[in-house]
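Please describe our next protein:
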Amino acid sequence: METLFITDCSIEDALKLHGDDISNANLVVFGFNGMGLVSYKKELSGETDYFRDLAILSKQIKGVVISGCDTDSYGSFRHSAAIADCGKLLGVSDMVHLEEGSEFVPGAAFRVYDTSIGKIGIIIEDDLYFPEVVRVLSLCDADFIVCILKKIEDFMPQIMLRASAYSNGVSMSLCAKNYACVANANGKISALTKTGLLKTEVAKDKDYHLVSLRKRGMYKEFNSGY
């Protein structure tokens, strides 16, 4: 599928700067720059239209649009990502794992979205560092997993992306400020950019690796020394 990662501007600005590329994509992914801070109260009252704009863009391309955002739920702030498909807002996923002392709060459980281009799992921020997250999404039959981060500060996100893609046999992508990359099911980087735009073909490939493990002789009976 034709996939476009936009890492340096909002949805509104992207339409002006990358309109032709967006119109030809099946999947468009923004980092947290896509929508910024979204207040549920203002969205419900009609003061802002971030989710509507996301849905409209997905209708225009007849495909899927994903964008990171910080959400304000009446004073409770979360790291989140919204997804829309062919004119319909499918939902908002939140970051689940959070260090103590943060001004943000953990969100709801993980979810795989059934879209017109396949089943897409979404991971936000530090959830990428917990292997069980990708395992859960892959076991829930995700064809492709999208990770949304605010910014890349070191090499760890790419390492976790590649390791998770390989160990679970599923294609994964990462989108952050001025950075995007795609890892295939073999854990290899198939596309990468450190600029504002990455346009690439992403295959919904799944690979089930046959792994052998030596068990005999590795463990002793729990009470063998007593």
User: Anything to note?
Assistant: Helices lie at 11-17, 19-23, 40-45, 50-61, 131-139, 156-168. The longest helix spans residues 156-168. The chain has one domain: 2-201.
